[in-house]
């Protein structure tokens, strides 16, 4: 039976995901072997296959875990008892910060998504669409109440913001001049300015 934690108490699935994320980011998904992942995680292949059915399952989970976190946080912002401008700004800034905090995951996803089977690709796209739809609903709420301009369709506003978010992994550097929170604030402000009546 595989141990569920190491000496520091880190669960095996988390160790496998951390090792896979680092290796996929450094070498690319297709150039990383299962053997390299298990060696880096300090576990056996049996342990990997106990928690993940395949290397492809690891790739899917690298992205899905970040998306689950972002979905939970978006739901909390959307359901909060606050004016729509505050809720949208908080959600818009949060997706930037959480993407920067998981830059390797984002880079891996956009570089390697084509390696997923059609079924897994469809599942990931469905999860991402659900997130975008909830985000769009905030914009539509503001447009319908007259707080936001409805001159630009909500779908296009969503694409505008997430186009910026999806490119963070290509240019953001942790040692650069802006903190994640500063980048998030600027991008959220741009979004709200674009919606100003």
UniProtKB/TrEMBL annotation:
<dbReference type="InterPro" id="IPR036271">
    <property type="entry name" value="Tet_transcr_reg_TetR-rel_C_sf"/>
</dbReference>
<keyword id="KW-0678">Repressor</keyword>
<keyword id="KW-0238">DNA-binding</keyword>
<dbReference type="InterPro" id="IPR050109">
    <property type="entry name" value="HTH-type_TetR-like_transc_reg"/>
</dbReference>
<dbReference type="GO" id="GO:0045892">
    <property type="term" value="P:negative regulation of DNA-templated transcription"/>
</dbReference>
<dbReference type="Pfam" id="PF17932">
    <property type="entry name" value="TetR_C_24"/>
</dbReference>
<dbReference type="InterPro" id="IPR009057">
    <property type="entry name" value="Homeodomain-like_sf"/>
</dbReference>
<protein>
    <submittedName>
        <fullName>TetR family transcriptional regulator</fullName>
    </submittedName>
</protein>
<keyword id="KW-0805">Transcription regulation</keyword>
<dbReference type="InterPro" id="IPR041490">
    <property type="entry name" value="KstR2_TetR_C"/>
</dbReference>
<dbReference type="Pfam" id="PF00440">
    <property type="entry name" value="TetR_N"/>
</dbReference>
<keyword id="KW-0804">Transcription</keyword>
<dbReference type="InterPro" id="IPR023772">
    <property type="entry name" value="DNA-bd_HTH_TetR-type_CS"/>
</dbReference>
<feature type="domain" description="HTH tetR-type">
    <location>
        <begin position="10"/>
        <end position="70"/>
    </location>
</feature>
<feature type="DNA-binding region" description="H-T-H motif">
    <location>
        <begin position="33"/>
        <end position="52"/>
    </location>
</feature>
<dbReference type="InterPro" id="IPR001647">
    <property type="entry name" value="HTH_TetR"/>
</dbReference>
<dbReference type="GO" id="GO:0000976">
    <property type="term" value="F:transcription cis-regulatory region binding"/>
</dbReference>
<dbReference type="GO" id="GO:0003700">
    <property type="term" value="F:DNA-binding transcription factor activity"/>
</dbReference>
């Amino acid at each position: 039976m595989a141990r569920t934690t190491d000496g520091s108490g880190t669960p095996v699935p988390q160790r496998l995901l951390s090792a896979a994320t680092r290796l996929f980011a450094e070498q690319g998904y297709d150039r990383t072997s299962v053997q390299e992942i298990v060696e880096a995680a300090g576990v056996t292949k049996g342990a990997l296959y106990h928690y993940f059915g395949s290397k492809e399952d690891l790739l899917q989970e690298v992205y899905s875990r970040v998306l689950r976190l972002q979905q939970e946080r978006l739901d909390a912002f959307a359901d909060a008892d606050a004016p729509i401008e505050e809720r949208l700004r908080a959600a818009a800034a949060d997706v930037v910060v959480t993407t920067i905090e998981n830059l390797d995951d984002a880079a891996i996803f956009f570089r390697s998504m084509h390696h997923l089977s059609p079924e897994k690709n469809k599942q990931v796209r469905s999860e991402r669409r659900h997130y975008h739809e909830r985000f769009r609903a905030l914009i539509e709420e503001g447009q319908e109440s007259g707080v936001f301009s409805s001159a630009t369709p909500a779908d296009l506003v969503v694409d505008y913001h997430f186009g910026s978010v999806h490119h963070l992994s290509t240019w953001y550097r942790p040692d650069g001049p802006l903190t994640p929170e500063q980048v998030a604030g600027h991008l959220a402000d741009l979004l709200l300015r674009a919606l100003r009546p």
